[in-house]
Specification:
The chain has helices at 21-35, 37-45, 55-77, 81-86, 93-113. It is mainly alpha-helical and 121 residues long. The protein has one domain. Helix 3 packs parallel to helix 5. It starts with 20 loop residues before the first helix and ends in an 8-residue tail after the last helix.
């Protein structure tokens, strides 16, 4: 997945640099909050598709599904190709965010141990 030089539908999110994870995560959090507070809530609390029973529940689930998709899109758009591949199996924005945190922790471990350890969603 190539990062477009010009953004079209939303302002460009900050590009993830593994060496500056904490700075990126802070800036990305506020970028997402500025776009839509409910999107950040989905990242923090997570989203799991609920069984569809009643029309009212369907509507609420559809809204959460859209927020999760928006959050995933924003997060993925801020990642370079290498990191994007590492989170491509994640099913929710929360999973992506948590995996990015783990990747940062692993990078610290790699420096200490000299070898990478795998992370799965």
């Amino acid at each position: 997945m190539a990062r477009f030089e010009e953004c079209r539908s939303i302002p460009c999110p900050p590009l993830f640099e593994r060496e500056a994870y904490f700075q990126w995560s802070s800036v990305m959090k506020y970028f997402i909050l500025a776009q839509d507070i409910e999107v950040w809530v989905i990242i923090e609390k997570g989203y799991m598709e609920a069984p569809k029973k009643k029309k009212k529940q369907m509507s609420a689930n559809d809204t959460k599904a859209k927020l999760n998709a928006k959050a995933m899109h924003t997060l993925l758009y801020g990642l370079n190709e290498e990191v994007s591949k590492q989170v491509s199996t994640c099913k929710s924005a929360k999973d992506i965010w948590e995996k990015l945190e783990k990747l940062n922790d692993n990078k610290k471990e790699e420096k200490k141990n000299g070898f990478p350890s795998p992370i799965l969603c």
